[in-house]
């Protein structure tokens, strides 16, 4: 079967790539080539084994793709636009959503938390090495008993003792945590009941991260259960510009759109596989692509991809203009991940029985879509954010 990533992006039916400058297109094409040549050959085996290919960290380091969104910390020049970084996330997920998630946790959540929440000394201390991927970051917010209600229900605590903070609690579903050099941990200050951020270094006494086993989605990602027992962190490692959960929400507002771009990439990857298979697989003496019902599934898939891409392109432009709001990213996350679910199901349907065999790849996209549908805000939570914005009424319990 023809490998879709050897082609240009055949799902770009309206030529959205034309929105990029010449220099941005070169970066996007470099991302596409990196994922095709360095990542794609590894993913099926590691997805089946539920293991992370550690050699990818070195390959990403050599690629120079990290840190582009952070002026002064990535490649020389101004920070990359949200249009470019969104399409980069899409290209990564087009090949593998797990690898895109690893990159997004490090390059998005962890680095952005330090960029926004840290003072200048902290940014200069941590971000250069993270931009080079000499060190890897993780972001620890979700807890075993609190996900959507984490703003009010956070149980991990921080208490100050002189110039030191003592952290106690647990976190769950923390990507990269088993091998990360720096984990941004969010905890509730027992003194003022406000959420604060702390950068906990690898090997800190009292900090343990245990890989979550038996996942059926994003199996390459090293999600972990974290336990914090009398973890001592110096005041200099507390993010100085974070004083409440409102600051955490600012970070999530920006990174939520990146998850929507990942969902678009998953749609495109599944669609390309289905299109290629339909052209080559014959039944009743003709290619599957020659049947009306198969064409219907392909066209509906392309429609979902195209409408989602247009939405995300405008969202990225709002971000670049500095005028986007919570409800903008929430609508995109809720809508695009819903369309993703439809596309991966239609793609798997076109493969018939072969669609459940990893050798054909589409099963991986089908399974990975479920995690993307849920993390960084469920459809229900994002719907309520948008609902409040358009009605003026809060329907949160």
> CA-to-CA gap between the ends?
50 Å
What number of structural domains do the residues give? 3
Sheet bearing the most strands, described?
7 strands, mixed
Give me the CATH superfamily of the largest domain: Butyryl-CoA Dehydrogenase, subunit A, domain 3
Descriptive overview:
It holds the Pfam family Acyl-CoA_dh_N. Keywords: FAD, Flavoprotein, Oxidoreductase. By secondary structure, this protein is an alpha+beta fold. It has 3 domains: 8-131, Orthogonal Bundle (Butyryl-Coa Dehydrogenase, subunit A, domain 1); 137-237, Butyryl-CoA Dehydrogenase, subunit A, domain 2, CATH 2.40.110.10; 245-391, Butyryl-CoA Dehydrogenase, subunit A, domain 3. Helices cover 52% and strands 14% of the residues. It is built from 11 helices and 9 strands. It has helices at residues 22-49, 55-63, 82-95, 97-117, 120-131, 150-153, 245-280, 292-321, 326-351, 362-374, 379-391; strands spanning 137-140, 157-161, 164-174, 182-189, 195-201, 207-211, 224-234, 282-283, 286-287. The strands form 2 sheets. Strands 1, 2, 3, 4, 5, 6 and 7 form a 7-stranded mixed beta sheet that branches. A two-stranded antiparallel sheet has the order 8-9. Strand 2 (157-161) and strand 3 (164-174) form a beta hairpin. Helix 7 packs antiparallel against helix 10.
């Amino acid at each position: 079967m023809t490998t879709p990533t050897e082609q240009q992006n055949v799902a770009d039916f309206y030529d959205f790539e034309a929105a990029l400058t010449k220099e941005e297109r070169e970066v996007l094409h470099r991302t596409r080539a990196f994922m095709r040549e360095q990542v794609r050959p590894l993913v099926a085996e590691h997805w089946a084994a539920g293991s992370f290919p550690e050699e990818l960290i070195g390959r990403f380091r050599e690629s120079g793709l990290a840190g582009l969104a952070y002026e002064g910390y990535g490649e020389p020049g101004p920070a990359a636009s949200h249009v470019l970084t969104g399409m980069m996330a899409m290209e990564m997920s087009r090949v593998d959503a797990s690898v895109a998630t690893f990159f997004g946790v490090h390059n998005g959540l962890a680095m952005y938390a330090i960029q926004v929440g840290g003072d200048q000394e902290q940014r200069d201390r941590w971000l250069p090495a993270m931009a080079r991927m000499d060190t890897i970051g993780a972001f620890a917010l979700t807890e075993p008993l609190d996900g959507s209600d984490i703003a009010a229900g956070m149980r991990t605590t921080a208490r100050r003792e002189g110039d030191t903070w003592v952290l106690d609690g647990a976190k769950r579903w923390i990507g990269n945590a088993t091998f990360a050099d720096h984990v941004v941990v969010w905890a509730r200050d027992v003194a003022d009941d406000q959420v604060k951020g702390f950068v906990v270094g690898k090997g800190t006494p009292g900090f343990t991260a245990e890989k979550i086993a038996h996942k059926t989605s994003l199996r390459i990602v090293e999600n972990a259960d974290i336990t914090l027992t009398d973890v001592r962190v110096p005041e200099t490692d507390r993010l100085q510009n974070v004083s409440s959960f409102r600051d955490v929400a600012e970070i999530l507002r920006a990174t939520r759109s990146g998850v929507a771009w990942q969902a678009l990439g998953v749609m495109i990857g599944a669609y390309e596989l289905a299109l290629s298979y339909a052209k080559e697989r014959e039944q009743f003496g003709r290619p599957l692509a020659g049947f009306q019902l198969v064409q219907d599934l392909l066209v509906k898939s392309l429609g979902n991809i195209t409408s989602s891409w247009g939405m995300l392109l405008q969202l990225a432009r709002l971000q670049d203009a500095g005028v986007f709001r919570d409800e903008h990213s929430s609508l995109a996350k809720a809508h695009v991940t819903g369309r993703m679910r439809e596309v991966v199901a239609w793609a798997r349907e076109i493969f018939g029985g072969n669609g459940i065999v990893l050798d054909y790849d589409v099963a991986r996209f089908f399974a990975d879509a479920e995690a993307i549908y849920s993390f960084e805000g469920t459809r229900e939570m994002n719907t309520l954010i948008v609902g409040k914005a358009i009605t003026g009424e809060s329907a949160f319990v």
